[in-house]
Design brief:
The chain is of the alpha/beta class. It is built from 9 helices and 10 strands.
């Protein structure tokens, strides 16, 4: 069934090394989403441009760094062309740009372009200190766009079953609203609350929000699960055991500093989630 949303999808790839590149799972998922909704696909393939320091022997360094920059640029263009071809085969209108710039400039470009899209699709990264995670954090905190994080193991877009994590908080509400057009097209939506993880309060249980979703034509049902201390694991187990094609949660309910220092629910799911994860902040 065709989707009426989104109308613009943005995806990006930042390749720090020529060898051992990540599989293009996010770009494929983004192209499939764009094809299903008749959306414009915009993509940025970026590589770091390494500057030459002003030191003794700089001419020799310049040759080495220049060759490395050229190699990176050629690899980025090859990735971009493959994405254009794949999008064309899917019948998607795609605008794919290539950028060779410093990491700080790449961060600014990614965030700026993300703000112009309905939804952002990004590759997963289990390394919390890596550049991919830094870019993802920038988009989540600065672009104010829903982000779908796609793990390397995912090969196709599926909305047969979607799982929504619900606790009644502002991030969960934002994620639910951002995902609503996708939820309407899902074959089944499980709204999951972890009832003994924390005080859910008024409106915090899955059964509280399901009537709202039913009024929007979502095939939703409430699921309330108990946790023995790892709520993220319980939610993820439910998603994987039910073959969910998408998991929807609010991102970073606590401060960013607390999440980086102590981890947290969102960080735990980002670290090892085999299901595409829609995050909103």
């Amino acid at each position: 069934m065709a989707l009426d949303y989104p109308k613009s999808v943005f995806t990006y790839r930042f390749e720090d090394e020529v060898e051992d590149r990540n599989p293009p799972t996010a770009s494929r998922w983004a192209a499939a989403l764009a094809a299903r909704s008749g959306a414009q696909l915009d993509a940025l393939v970026a590589v770091p441009h390494r500057a030459v320091p002003n030191v003794f022997g700089a001419s020799l360094v310049k040759n080495i760094v220049g060759g490395d920059n050229a190699q990176q640029g050629e690899a980025a263009e090859a990735i971009a062309q493959a994405l254009r071809t794949e999008a064309g085969q899917a019948g998607v209108s795609a605008n794919v740009a290539v950028a060779s710039a410093s990491f700080s400039d790449v961060r600014a470009q990614v965030t700026a372009q993300a703000r112009l899209a309905d939804i952002v699709v990004a590759d997963a990264s289990s390394d919390a200190t890596g550049t991919q995670r830094e870019l993802l954090s920038d988009v989540l905190f600065s672009a104010s766009r829903p982000v779908v994080v796609v793990p390397a193991s995912v090969t196709s877009l599926s909305l047969d079953t979607v799982v929504v994590g619900w606790d009644g908080t502002s991030p969960a509400t934002r994620a639910l609203n951002d995902a609503l057009p996708l939820l309407r097209q899902a074959g089944r939506v499980d709204v999951v609350s972890i009832i003994n993880d924390k005080d859910l309060g008024t409106g915090g249980r899955a059964s509280d929000v399901v009537p709202h979703l039913l009024r929007h034509g979502v095939k939703a049902n409430a699921v309330e699960l108990e946790s023995s201390g790892d709520a993220a694991h319980v939610l993820l187990h439910h998603a994987t055991s039910n073959n969910a094609g998408l998991l929807v949660i609010g991102a970073y309910a606590h401060s960013r500093l607390r999440q980086l220092v102590f981890g947290g629910f969102t960080s735990a799911l980002l670290k090892d989630c085999p299901v595409p994860l829609l995050l909103s902040h």
